[in-house]
Amino acid sequence: RTTMKSLRFISAEAFVSNAEFARKSLSAVAHDLFPLLFKASYLLEQGEVIHDLVENWPLFDFNLGKLLGATLDYQEDLSHRTCSVCLESCLTGLRDYVLNQSSPYMKKLKVVDLTGIKDVEVQFCKCKKTMGRWARTQLLSKLCSELLVYLQQPQCSPGTFEISINVLIDLFVTEQNYELVVQALLKKCSCPLKICCVAFRSDNLTLQKFFYIIKLTDPSLLRKLEIVHNVRLEMEHLEMLFNSIHFPQLMSLTLPARTFNVQRFTATDEQMLTNIGEKMGEMTQLTELSMSFSILTGRIQKLFSPLKTPLKMLDVSNCSLNHADMTFLANSFHANHLEALDLSGHNIPELYPSTFFKLLRHCSSVLRSLTLEDCNIQDTHVNMLILGLSPCQKLWEFKFIGNPLSSQALKRLFTFLCELPMLKNVEFPVPSDCYPVDITYPIDDVSLCRFDHQKYERVAEELNLILLQANREDVKASTPLFGSYDAAVQETSSELGAYLIKSFKETLEKFTTSFSKMS
């Protein structure tokens, strides 16, 4: 599909396509044409032109998401292009905006917003090299450090000290870039580029380092907090976090696996859980909550009752919810507002079928994303599932891998899914009849790939044909065996892999030492 371009945009492309000419001519360009030229340069990956446009930016603000989003001149949204050439040119241009005292433009820039960039799996840029959230965090912190060094040089112009630009960014911090980011945040007051953290993701960090850096970010500005994977945060640490830091703007909270485990609760732990619930209740902007792989059996009401704002996104996958938990969710005021719901890892048909469908009915008018992976949904449940999903006319995404459904059942389900007008993404399981007869669900990682691949390909073709015949080429159907694409995990996979190997080695050494002592 070709997106129409206005005559203005075609002219802008022609202008920036000759980088040498464009760079020399910038001083004669009207201020209001800079956004147009920036988008044209980004589309053509003209790194040098992007750098010079940003270095001489004549406007009060620079909002990357808006500049790359759909415009009247060119409707295509380029904000999902995390092109390394373009983004590096953009950030180095920002540094040189501060350093360049000979620019013909008066320095008006006050706010730079880098939060509108979307990290996606498939990149359409020519260089095919991306700059993810972690790398953007790393580069901006490095450039801030370079500016601080320059400010101490004798040749530094006095005008540089007067520049103050708030740079809004989603930070992603791990052990590898921790020191660099800490230095940039510590010296924020002295630096012309002031990092303003709007969203913060931490992985592979000790608790001590996490607590230190989260205080440096200015938590009063935080709208999204993700504490994931290798941050060993447990319930007592979460209570400590909420008691010591106030998050008035927080809209989205993601907690790591095993933050809660009610199986070993004492009376003190029950009180702690109540306190955490009350603290979350004080976060009046909180609408997104993800706490997968915690054991929360029978405690959903205690944790969620204090919340004053309805949740729009809830991920309680693999949280061992019981009937009381599901009943609370189905009857709570959250149910009518849920746009995204993940209940993976719960045996829905056996434990609470009617309560689940009541919850689905309540959120059907707004639900956009539903994830029911490893929920023991079998062929006999398909008609009931179709009935439950029928009112969900706004459903955009449905993920249900890991369920024991035959190819026939999948075909029946796909025929129905074609009727959901907003549906764009479906993640379906490998049909149960593609696996050996002795396979048991949920399937372990070792057996996951032990299926008849040729038969699967034939079934997948038939399912896509159902979509095609219903004129639903707009629906993407896939089977990501090891989970959906996660840009953040993909970007830091080598660091996380090294950490896991190190942890395994340490555990093995401890076991060997203990065994030797016993011997």
Automatic annotation (TrEMBL):
Gene Ontology CC entries for this record: cytoplasm
Key words of the record: Leucine-rich repeat, Repeat
InterPro entries: LRR_dom_sf, LRRC14/PRAME
Similarity comment text for this entry: Belongs to the PRAME family. LRRC14 subfamily.
Protein name per its UniProtKB record: Leucine-rich repeat-containing protein 14B
